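User: Please run a holo structure prediction.
Assistant: Happy to. Please share the sequence and the ligand.
User: Here you go; the ligand is NG6.
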Amino acid sequence: MKSKVLYFSASLLALNAFAVTGKNKPNIVIILADDLGYGDVSAYGCKTIHTPNLDKLANEGVRFTQGYATSATSTPSRYGMLTGMYPWKNKDAKILPGDAPLLISEKQYTLPKMMQDAGYVTAAIGKWHLGMGDGNVNWNKTVKPGAKEIGFDYSNLIAATNDRTPTVYVENGKVVGLDPNDPLEVSYKDNFPCEPTALTHPEMLKMHWSHGHNQSIHNGIPRIGYQKGGKSALWVDEDMADYFTGIAKKFLTENKNKPFFMYFGLHQPHVPRAPHSRFVGSSGMGPRGDAILEADWSVGEIINHLEKLGLLENTLVVFSSDNGPVLNDGYNDQAVELVGDHKPAGPLRGGKYSLFEAGTRIPFVVYWKGKVKPMVSDALVCQLDFMASIAALIKQPLKGDFDSQNILPALLGKNKNGRTDLVIEANGKLAYRAGNWALIPPYKGPKRNLTGNELGNLAEGGLYDLKADLGQQHNVSSKNRKKYEKMYKRFLGITKGYTELK
Ligand code: NG6
Ligand code: CA
């Protein structure tokens, strides 16, 4: 009897403790699209595509006109967001193959570890692209270290990108649905004997490649990288949105009584664009537009689910993209032919892979029902700052040196004092934003890559007054030599010791 009473009061105590530590902590949901451009969301001014669910967040939250990713490609961008450190400080933070080892050191403090320390349940769902395993992965065993080791209690991921092998879902380090009698093997060096590739078996393709993407074929789509076996575990691209949206909803339902942090990486509109048949033809712009509408649907599902669970007023939702837009990223999917008047980068110059604005300036929305007032903010904000800003929000002390800055009031729309400056990265090269100005140091290299996007290699360097010239049409570096040199000096002061990633 006594032990029962003890047990009863202990659980009351536990409940009470939960009420104090747990109840008032807002949940955090970060939704990151893949290659979605500044002009791809109708709330950002485009009239060529209609994204009602993203618009709801943008129009009822804080819509940032100067929101940035740290990098113009996925891996470094995600690294910056999750570690609070500039990605160019880690020489390995560049586009990773599907069999790359975990990029973030297990010793590194991360945003999800901070959330765990604050009592949150954490999840990473969807696109990963930060490496998993030790560089010599056996996909038929538990793959580690991975998301768990850097702070995610639960994970359900694609290892890299939807155009790279392995084309399987990895849940908590285990390939989902794998048959032990049909082991999965992956290689980024050599093909496996007798396995078809896009070069040897073009007749197997339902989607054709234009550059890269001519190795293993799965689901009629040629990929980067080779793989063999694991047939029962291979994903169906057209079902991926339903799969991950379902996983996210399940995580939210199961953790509705705890404070949670969910990082949801959408795979759209990255190539290969293979949306579910429900969305095929919905945009009139071919697979790229249809994939954007599928992503919009997915975001709507998550928001509606939070509402259904009664959690919307206690959940801070961030929506953004890992880098800027691209039309032809290696497949002939009519993105270029069907784009019409649509401008994926909006008024900005460049796109994915670019040091020009459209490489890193992306849709960036903070939505918190009842807590954040609708507004448009021109504060300079970056995904790098989530770590220090969320630390401030949940009153979790952040020890150590981070590039992440606490700009919480700006993120919540309470003021417009964002960062004063920011270093951005593209293809291992750096550029600098400060105030209204964008500085691109002198770089050798091609004007464009195979996608047709401008990279921002300017032999003489560039200086742009974004207030007067948002589209970066007028390089004023010679006219404003003093300004250029002053900014360049400040840029070198921040990036000293950095040598271009090879
Ligand atoms: C490039 C791929 C591109 C895309 C990109 C990563 C080729 C020719 N191009 O190497 O298709 O996969 O890597 O994109 O292979 S990201 O958004 O994940 O950074
Ligand atoms: Ca991307």
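Residues 287-308 form the longest helix (22 residues).
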